[in-house]
Each structure stands twice: as structure tokens, then as C-alpha cells.
Amino acid sequence: MHDKTRKFYSMEKGKFYKENDKLMIDVGAYTAALEFSTGLTADIFGKPSVLFFQHALKNLGLNSNQVVMIIGGAQLAGIRSVLVQTGKYQEGDESRHQYIPNGIVPNLKAAILHIRTKNQRSPC
Predict the structure, then answer these.
(1) Hey, is 69 helix, strand or coil?
(2) Average pLDDT in the 82-106 region?
(3) Using alpha carbons only, what angle is made at residue 58 by residues 108 and 109, rounded to the nearest 5 degrees?
(4) pTM (predicted TM-score)
């Protein structure tokens, strides 16, 4: 099954997500298993794929300098990002990810205030 002309797609490679205050295995584990067993590399069309963010910008009719995302992968598409310390956030996540956020805030309300304040002066 190691035919390099074949392709497969996955939404993302996330390790886990939070549901009902519990961490649950995400699609990334299944993607990794399929990559290992087939010898193929999945084409990612969800976050943090640059194509995902570029498609969103196009559909919204916006440029990357007009947008701030609460997700790190957006930076690959030239979009500023803010890390919100809620949901599946764990202490030290700031240094564990390959994307360094333009801002770090404790909750969504603080993210909105941060974005509004920074957009009045300059980008995050």
C-alpha cells in the first residue's frame, strides 16, 4: 500500500480536544496511524493549514493584516494570533508550540479587549 501516487486527506493533526472538562483523543492520532500504515503523508486541509486560512480570508474578503485569530497556525498565513488560556490550555503551552503568539490573554473577554486595543494603536 506504499503507492506514492495515492493521496489521503485529513482535517488536522490535533492530538486532543476538550469535551465536558475531559481531554479526548483528536483526529491527529488516526491521521498519524494511517500515515504510518500507508507510508503516505496526509494533505491537511483544516487548521493549521495555510490553505485553510487563505480560503477563509478570501471568502471573508479580508487581508491578513485585518484579522487576528485565536490559534497559532494562522501565523503561517500572515495572520496575527492570540493565545487564550482557557479550554485545553495547559500551563507552559506558550513555549511548547512552534508558533509564538502575538499576544497571551487569560480569557476570551481579555482577547477581545486586547485585539480592540491593539487595533486602535498597532497590530498585536
Answers:
(1) strand
(2) 82
(3) 5
(4) 0.58
